[in-house]
């Protein structure tokens, strides 16, 4: 209920539709597609990792990858496209 209320302050339509919440610590994943997503998701990362690292990278097409800065802010990412966490210093810092 708290997550839905928080999302409603950002995008009411999304808040009414979303059904899942993932909380991770020091996640490192390979490029993947979220096959059960019906639309974009919001990502937020917190921690002491360096600015400019640890965002979410998304393949826009075969030749273009963009990076969404999610450190201390929400970023809207379409998980139906290949995406992954950008590198950060996982051995020396913490990222949630």
Describe this structure in words.
A hairpin with a 2-residue loop joins strand 2 and strand 3. The protein has a 3-stranded antiparallel beta sheet with strand order 3-2-5, with no helix packed on it. A two-stranded antiparallel sheet has the order 1-4. The protein is built from 2 helices and 5 strands. It is globular. Helix content is 14%, strand content 23%.
Distance between the termini: 20 Å
Q: Strand share of the residues?
A: 15-25%
Instruction: Please list the strands of the largest sheet in the order they lie side by side.
Output: 3-2-5
Q: What is the molecular shape? A: globular
Give the oligomeric state. single chain
The radius of gyration over CA amounts to 14 Å
List keywords for this structure.
three-stranded antiparallel β-sheet; 96 residues; two-stranded antiparallel ribbon; alpha+beta; globular
Topology readout:
Layout: H1 2-8, H2 12-17, E1 41-44, E2 56-61, E3 64-68, E4 74-77, E5 83-85
Antiparallel strand pairs: 1-4, 2-3, 2-5
Summarize the structure.
The protein has helices spanning about 1-10, 10-15; strands at about 40-45, 55-60, 65-70, 75, 85. The chain is an alpha+beta fold and about 100 residues long. Strands 3-2-5 form a three-stranded antiparallel β-sheet, with no helix packed on it. Strands 1-4 form a two-stranded antiparallel sheet.
């Amino acid at each position: 209920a708290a997550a839905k209320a928080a999302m409603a302050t950002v995008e009411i339509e999304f808040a009414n539709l979303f059904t899942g919440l993932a909380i991770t610590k020091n996640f490192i994943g390979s490029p993947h597609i979220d096959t059960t997503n019906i639309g974009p998701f919001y990502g937020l990362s917190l921690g002491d990792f360096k600015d400019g690292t640890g965002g979410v990278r998304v393949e826009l097409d075969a030749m273009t990858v963009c990076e969404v800065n999610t450190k201390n802010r929400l970023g809207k990412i379409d998980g139906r496209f290949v995406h992954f966490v950008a590198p950060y210093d996982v051995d020396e810092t913490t990222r949630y």
